[in-house]
Design brief:
Strand order of the largest sheet: 1-2-3-5-4
Largest sheet: 5 strands, mixed, barrel
Strand content: 25-35%
Helix content: 25-40%
Radius of gyration: 55 Å
Distance between the termini: 193 Å
Structural class: alpha+beta
Number of helices: 12
Number of strands: 20
Length: 512
């Protein structure tokens, strides 16, 4: 048994022999450095930085040389950004010079670096941003971090179908392409070919994917009652679509304004910025209901602070109805002009039309029921009545001012006594005239008893007339000298003439 065993030393080996093997491997690797060829892109480490050149260790027998003349003035790869021991990606221009150094390029390596980055973005289905540097009739040329990419005209979001069909040869399309120069676009890589140096991108697909992602985010973010800013993206007969920054919400026509709206184009236009309130969010159907009017203050809550019954306002006819017409006095505030409040004989269907502006008077305000009563008929009438009332009110005050005493109570008493005497004198004259007339009536009554009723009727009319005449004379004023004024003389003459006419009629009647 013991003879069959091998010595342990033979199995373990000699330590001195293993060290010799490791040394031989290191020498072999040193004598046969990494094999590089023109066009390779490798990563190296900066070992020294001079004013004219930078030495980079890329695993060769000697360091590679990188000229500082090709470095960019700023940004990644500039002289100020590089430091010793930094890892950099370099392009092998020449594997070895007569001096034994490799010639390297950082600028060409940056292009390679960007291609590698673009390939990774393409695999990950990422969206990128690039600046438009030029255009041609086929589309836009963009700069993707040093790589020239192309956006075909059919993949430009802002161009309409007819503009795409016309192509870049159309002056309008060419003008739009030119206006996009220096703008930054959101793009998606749709084709990449390094061998042909080909990079094709699409703005349409990028916008669609971004909106789809953003919609999912907004459906989770939006809460009912929240106020958001948006932009009108489209108009339809039933309402307007508002872009909230990636997702469209619908504002129904009933939620556009507090006033009546027949079509969204009356109050909105595409591209207009608006504030909206979120009404509801349906995550399953991916629908968002919005309201513009609820994002504003309801004008009916403050209508009584701005208007009052009897006030004159300017209204615009909005609708003609069989029972009258509706008029808007401000956005969100409409009232009814009932048929009874139109001028007599006016037919609203023939005399009024939508959009017509009229002066109206407010009759009543009911904020709770959102009712406003208006009148066209009373626009002038209350003013005339008010002016007449003011004129009557000024008459007595002016008369009082004219007859107001200016010399004290003594003068007032004297004037009052004189007026009373004058009134008594006029009454006495009237009584004497009445007695004379009664005597003439007594002689005429002896004629026939059948005519007595007729004469009594005339007598009653005469008595009513005579009783009313002194009341008129009582209100006549005297002059400063106590004589009857011209007005009093005129009334007295008229009274005598009437009595004379009555007497003549009675005489003629009795004679017949």
């Amino acid at each position: 048994m013991s003879e069959a065993r091998e010595p342990e030393t033979s199995r373990i080996g000699n330590p001195e022999e293993s060290e010799d093997v490791n040394m031989e491997a290191l020498l072999a690797s040193a004598n046969n450095p990494t094999s590089l060829k023109r066009g390779d892109v490798v990563e190296g480490e900066i070992v020294r930085i001079d004013q004219d050149e930078i030495l980079v260790d890329i695993g060769l027998k000697s360091e590679g040389v990188l000229s500082t003349k090709e470095l960019p003035a700023s940004g990644y790869g500039s002289l100020n950004e590089l430091k010793v021991h930094d890892k950099v990606l370099v392009y092998v221009v020449q594997p070895e010079t007569p001096d034994g150094h490799a010639v390297l390029s950082l600028r060409k390596a940056n292009a390679e670096r960007q291609w590698r980055l673009v390939e990774e973005q393409y695999r990950n289905n990422e969206l990128i941003r690039a600046r438009v540097i030029d255009y041609n009739k086929g589309g836009l040329i963009v700069d993707v971090n040093g790589i020239r990419g192309f956006v075909p005209i059919s993949q430009i979001q802002s161009l309409k179908r007819e503009e795409v069909a016309a192509g870049g040869e159309s002056q309008e399309t060419a003008a739009k392409l030119a206006s996009m120069k220096d703008k930054e676009l959101q793009l998606k890589i749709i084709e990449i070919n390094r061998a042909r140096n080909r990079l094709i991108l699409s703005e349409r697909q990028a916008v669609q994917e971004w909106r789809q992602r953003r919609r999912e985010e907004l459906l989770d973010e939006l809460k009912p009652g929240e106020i958001r800013k948006g932009r009108v993206s489209n108009l339809a007969n039933f309402g307007a679509f508002v872009d909230l920054g990636g997702a469209d919400g619908l504002v129904h026509i009933s939620q556009l304004a507090w006033s009546r709206v027949n079509h969204p184009s009356e109050v909105l236009h595409v591209g207009q910025e608006v504030e909206v309130q979120v009404l509801s969010v349906d995550k399953e159907k991916k629908k968002i209901a919005l309201s513009i009017k609820k994002a504003e203050v309801d004008p009916w809550t403050t209508v009584e602070q701005r208007y009052s019954p009897g006030q004159l306002v300017t209204g615009t006819i909005t609708k003609i109805a069989p029972f009258g017409a509706f008029a808007r006095i401000e956005d969100g505030i409409e009232g009814l002009i009932h048929l009874s409040e139109l001028p007599p004989g006016m037919d609203p269907k023939t005399s009024l039309h939508e959009g017509q502006q009229l002066q109206l008077r407010i009759l009543r305000i009911d904020p709770e029921r959102r009712r406003l009563g208006l009148s066209l008929r009373q626009v002038e009438e209350p003013d005339s009545a008010k002016a007449q009332a003011q004129g009557q009110g000024q008459g007595p005050s002016q008369g009082q001012n004219q007859t107001a005493p200016s010399s004290g109570s003594a003068e007032t008493t004297t004037r009052g006594t004189t007026d009373d005497k004058m009134k008594l004198s006029l009454e006495e004259v009237a009584r004497r005239q009445e007695s004379g007339q009664h005597q003439q009536e007594g002689r005429g009554e002896r004629r026939e008893r059948g005519e007595k009723g007729e004469r009594e009727g005339r007598g009653e009319r005469r008595e009513r007339t005579e009783k009313s005449e002194p009341s008129l004379l009582d209100h006549l004023l005297l002059g400063d000298d106590g004589e009857i004024t011209a007005m009093a003389e005129a009334f007295r003459a008229a009274a005598l003439q009437r009595n004379k006419n009555l007497t003549t009629e009675e005489t003629e009647g009795s004679g017949s």
